[in-house]
Amino acid sequence: MPNPISTDICIIGAGPVGLACALEAQRRGLRAAVVDKGALVNSIVGYPTNMEFFSTPELLEIGGYPFPTSHYKPLREDALDYYQRVARDEKLVLDHVLNYPNPFAGSTTFFFDHNQAGSVPGPLDVQVQIFTVAGRLVRTLTAVVPSTEAHQKSITWNGRDEYNDQLARGVYVYRLSVRSQGKGTTASKYEKLVILN
Q: pLDDT truncated to tens, each residue of the chain (197 aa)?
């Protein structure tokens, strides 16, 4: 099991208030973990289909995103569309980038979390580039994964270079890059790994 990873703030609930808190934390450079038993704005999903909110759209806005609606008071569907659009339109962010096991002998799997889950489904292009500490690229791994799951663990590596030769034991640096095919936004992070072969 991976080592616990620290976050700056833990937000309980991915409803409108939790989403607003996560957006503000992210804008202030904090790493926020949002925990919920369901999907993004899951609490609204359970509302009656034609339910009308008591508040006006202006009072339901979060993160500076306007809440467009043709009604004086928004309906459930308006709110679902709005909050999912806000999450989708926010910049792609990666967190909890790691490989496990690390150090490793044999193989390791790369993990990362992203903030695009729960929005309109679309694939993510994932690339992991492994470098020596001197900066020489020794292997590039690629995958296409669905954006519907916030926690990804789709790439496993056997510790071999582009020519299928086993790399020497030691410390390596990797860059995990993710590109949203639908939005075209990208994000990447650098981490280190240790081969024990």
A: 344 456 788 888 888 888 888 888 877 778 777 777 776 777 788 888 889 988 888 888 888 888 988 888 899 999 988 888 887 777 767 878 999 999 999 999 999 988 777 555 578 899 999 999 999 999 999 999 888 777 888 899 999 999 999 999 999 999 999 988 877 778 889 999 999 98
Please, which residues have CB within 8 angstroms of residue 125's CB and are 6 or more apart in sequence? 142, 143, 144, 178, 179, 181
Domain boundaries, the chain: 9-89, 94-195
d(CA 197, CA 194) in angstroms, rounded, equals 9
Assigned architecture for domain 9-89: 3-Layer(bba) Sandwich (3.50)
CA dist 4 and 9 (Å) reads 14
Q: Who contacts 191 (Cβ-Cβ below 8 Å, separation ≥6)?
A: 97, 98, 99, 173, 174, 176
| CA atoms within 13 A of residue 28's CA, in its CB half-sphere | 11
> Do residues 137 and 130 touch, judged by C-beta distance below 8 A?
yes
pTM listed for this prediction: 0.61
Are the C-beta atoms of residues 29 and 9 closer than 8 Å to each other? Answer: no
CATH of domain 94-195: 2.60.40.10
